[in-house]
Amino acid sequence: MRDPWNDSELIERFRAQARTALPRAPLNSALCASIAQDRSLSSLLGHAPPNQQMPVLLLAAIHFLLLDEPQHPLAAWYPNLTIEHRAPDDPALAETLAAFVHERSPAVLELLATRSVQTNEVGRCALFVPIFDEIQRTVGPLSHIDIGASAGLTTLISHYSYRYDDGPLLGTSDLVIDCTTRGTRTAPVALPTIRAARGLDATPIAAADPTEARWLTACCWPDQADRFERLTNALEIAQTHPPDVRSGDAVDDLDTMVELTDDDDAHPVITTSWVLNYLEVERQEAFVAAVDRVGRERDVTWVFAESPAQTPALDHAEDLASEHTTALTSTSWRNGQRHVQHFGTAHPHGYWIQWR
Ligand SMILES: C[S@@+](CC[C@H](N)C(=O)[O-])C[C@H]1O[C@@H](n2cnc3c(N)ncnc32)[C@H](O)[C@@H]1O
Predict the structure, then answer these.
(1) How many angstroms is it from 344 CA to the middle of ligand 1?
(2) CA 295 vs CA 73, 258, 291: distances in Å
(3) Is the dihedral of CA 133, 135, 141, 147 positive or negative?
(4) What is the pLDDT of residue 119?
(5) The domain 122-207+243-355 is classified under which CATH number: 3.40.50, 1.20.120, 3.10.20, 2.40.160?
(6) Would the pLDDT of 247 be above 80?
């Protein structure tokens, strides 16, 4: 077992995170650089379970506590909390950060010991809308089953609005997800009809629980203020439209999730987005087999947004095999026939789609 106070490896992790985050998340980088220089801070991470000792967990714990005290001087550095924020390389950051953490160390330790980094990326809904639109044209209304749904925010597709390139706004929600596209596919002109939407997750997050919701937002990097705002708005929508997310395993409980759609009078469409990379390759294979088993019995479609490099068991386009990208593919079963369609690649958070 790791000695929590022999933390040179932890320091190295903070240094490494400071380097990799620098180009796109300067505050995240500066916080990690400060922590790497202060053993009293870096050693805190040793209190997390060994498989959770990632710098972003400590950053999320600090962010979680700061969200409750947005007037604290430390908030002046957070772009999501202060519009005219202080520069990440402002030398006062180190001292302000250390004081904030030390004054709250029992709460920080509690969070490190009990929490894990969790995400739910609402922008990925923009990847599914055009594909749902195409599926719907042949099978009619859909019943959405999102596997690995986290807080279920990606089951609320119909509750957001979308704009593809300079096209019309689809939907009436104030939460607008903008997505740029490249390639020849035409953007949808209306939202797909989704009669029902359900999610399944190994550890669902209760979006309606304010503490859970705050932890989810705390895991969003403060440098990405637009993502943070989108997530906060989606969580607000989830208060009035609570997502239906059940607890269970992607492979073992897939059949049950599909059976739940029996009374929806709609075509079941399964989605996974950045989920199957959490499964061992054998379990990825088992998931593919589970979908195929369902498909041999009834018409069903599975749409995935997954990384080929991390999900080798999936049917990826040959030219994408082992690529570190987000591949968009569907497997459809119609009258016992299996058909795979590669749609293209996308930004992992849904900002763009490159159609094939
Ligand atoms: C990175 S999150 C992605 C969440 C959501 N799909 C999205 O795109 O925002 C991965 C989710 O997969 C869930 N997960 C991992 N392994 C799972 C399994 N075997 N069965 C069900 N859910 C699983 C995790 O709990 C986590 O909520």
Answers:
(1) 22
(2) 56, 10, 6
(3) negative
(4) 94
(5) 3.40.50
(6) yes
Q: Kindly report, residue by residue over 149-168, the tens digit of the pLDDT.
A: 999 999 999 999 999 999 99
Shortest-distance Cα residue to atom 7 of ligand 1: 120
Question: What does the DSSP 8-state code read for residue 24?
Answer: T
pLDDT at 206: 95
**Looking at the predicted structure, is the pLDDT value of residue 1 above 50?**
no
Chain-wide mean pLDDT for the chain? 95
Most informative mutation of 219, 275, 280 for ligand 1 (most atoms within 8 A of CB): 275
- The residue ranges of every structural domain in the chain are 8-114, 122-207+243-355
Helices and strands, number each (H, E), in the chain: 11, 10
Provide, for the chain, the percentages of residues in helix, strand and coil under a 3-state DSSP scheme, each rounded to the nearest 5: 45, 20, 35
Residue 6: the pLDDT is: 55
Among 1-5, 36-40, 247-251, 281-285, the minimum mean pLDDT is found in 1-5
Q: Which atom of ligand 1 is found nearest the CA of 205? A: 27
Q: What is the secondary structure of 121-177 as a DSSP string?
A: -GGGHHHHHHHHHHHHHHH-SEEEEEES-TTSGGG-GGGSEEEETTSPPBSS-S-EE
**CA 237/CA 213 separation, integer angstroms:** 12
